[in-house]
Amino acid sequence: ETRPRVPVLWLHGLECTCCSESFIRSGHPQASDIILSMISLDYDDTIMAAAGEQAEAIVEEIIRDYKGGYLLAVEGNVPLAHGGWNCIVGGRTFHSRLEEAARHARAVIAWGTCASFGCVQAARPNPTQATPISRLVSHVPVVNVPGCPPIAEVMTGILSYMLMFDRLPEVDRNLRPKIFYGQRIHDKCYRRAHFDAGQFVEAWDDEGARQGFCLYKMGCRGPTTYNACGATGWNEGLSFPIRSGHGCIGCSEDGFWDRGPFYER
Ligand code: SF4
Ligand code: SF4
Ligand code: F3S
């Protein structure tokens, strides 16, 4: 309660903004508690009321006044082709804005699969040369929080961890925090007993589908996907893709768009 709130700059590169949409729906902790009590969200060009030169000046102020003390959150990736003109913010390429903001950050959080791995923009043939944040930032730690989008409570959970313990979470070889990405969807899936028993959905809406059998033969990528969906759920634990009758498409994995097809039948 007595600790000063940590300044956060939240930049947006090539992305669709659904990571922000997910974040603001976090139920526990509530996104409003994070924003109002734990961090000082000083710049987020998607949800801030300010705009124009005064808003852009905030970025320079934070970098100057909180060198080494602010967190840089990045949603989206960086298009390097054509001199970077595929993403211009405030009259500058996103690449140059990222380089400037990351230079003195305490750490960088890469929200979503766009920022972590490239996502759909980086799918073959990747015409804009969309590039993940961790390939461009090497002098400060980068934490990847993939998912398209990431689960809201995973986003706020990772921020809470970093702020409460004043350290970065332990990460895997893809820079994903092990606390949320340490297990495969398959490891926590409630349909796992059907997988083990050899009971599979063979066609959409067949008897196996009505019985809730395993979706592996329909293309489910749960066995190779690391994320917390099976344990945490979506919409405050209400459901997740497999509970809704659809296989996992591996949205938190590197290159998931290029590993198609999503549907085996
Ligand atoms: Fe949108 Fe997915 Fe990219 Fe997030 S990771 S900005 S949800 S396309
Ligand atoms: Fe594994 Fe997918 Fe079957 Fe669940 S539905 S048990 S994640 S293959
Ligand atoms: Fe994504 Fe698979 Fe979860 S598609 S939302 S990681 S179940």
Characterization of this structure:
Its EC number is 1.12.99.6. Keywords: 3Fe-4S, 4Fe-4S, Cell membrane, Iron, Iron-sulfur, Membrane, Metal-binding, Oxidoreductase, Signal. [3Fe-4S] cluster binds at residues 229, 248, 251. This protein has 11 helices and 9 strands. With 265 residues, it is an alpha/beta fold. It has a 5-stranded parallel beta sheet, with helices on both faces. The longest helix has 14 residues, at 152-165. It is globular, with a radius of gyration of 19 Å. It starts with 5 loop residues before the first strand and ends in a 33-residue tail after the last helix. FE3-S4 cluster binds at residues 147, 185, 225, 227, 229, 240-242, 248-252. One iron/sulfur cluster is lined by residues 185-186, 189, 191-192, 195, 214-216, 220, 222-223, 242, 247-248.
Question: What is the gist of this entry?
Answer:
By secondary structure, this protein is an alpha/beta fold. Helix content is 30%, strand content 13%. Strands 2-1-3-7-9 form a five-stranded parallel beta sheet, with helices on both faces. It has a two-stranded antiparallel sheet with strand order 4-8. Strands 5-6 form a two-stranded antiparallel sheet.
